[in-house]
Design the sequence.
């Protein structure tokens, strides 16, 4: 199994940010609860997934957040690797950015989901995917292929590699 380090780091950052926000803390408030002295910029880069976090620093962050590190890592692992074989990972941001006319029902749904969630990805079971394929009037296999394309190349849609910022 190959590890996409960038995706793992991004999801880890999203989970850290979600935990902090669930507690109603600013980065400064989290920083005040840490054992070591780190800059607010460093905390921000951890949450954005642009900076790698050492194991010791991750444990320190988890302890400050009152979250067992193994629970955080298990959630990150599920999101990145999609442990459940009956589930398909969908990149909501990629669906929203895609211009394919046939995906308009799925695009509207993805826009709503993004408004409700901090995560740009979601896991769907096979039956939900089959219903979505019906709404999009395409075979499930075709929708699966399109979703796989959007997950591997988010933000490009059917365009020529330019990101669409909405």
Sequence:
């Amino acid at each position: 199994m190959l590890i996409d380090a960038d995706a793992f780091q991004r999801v880890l950052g999203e989970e850290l940010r979600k935990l902090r926000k669930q507690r109603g803390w600013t980065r400064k408030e989290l920083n005040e609860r840490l054992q070591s002295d780190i800059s607010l910029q460093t905390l921000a880069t951890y949450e954005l997934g642009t900076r790698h976090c050492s194991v010791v620093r991750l444990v320190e962050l988890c302890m400050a957040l009152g979250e067992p590190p193994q629970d955080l890592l298990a959630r990150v692992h599920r999101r990145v690797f999609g442990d459940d074989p009956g589930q398909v990972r969908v990149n909501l941001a990629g669906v929203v950015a895609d211009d394919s006319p046939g995906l308009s029902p799925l695009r509207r749904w993805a826009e709503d989901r993004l408004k409700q969630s901090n995560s740009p990805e979601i896991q769907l079971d096979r039956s939900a995917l089959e219903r979505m394929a019906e709404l999009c009037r395409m075979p499930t296999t075709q929708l699966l292929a399109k979703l796989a394309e959007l997950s591997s190349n988010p933000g490009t849609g059917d365009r020529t590699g330019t990101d669409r910022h909405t």
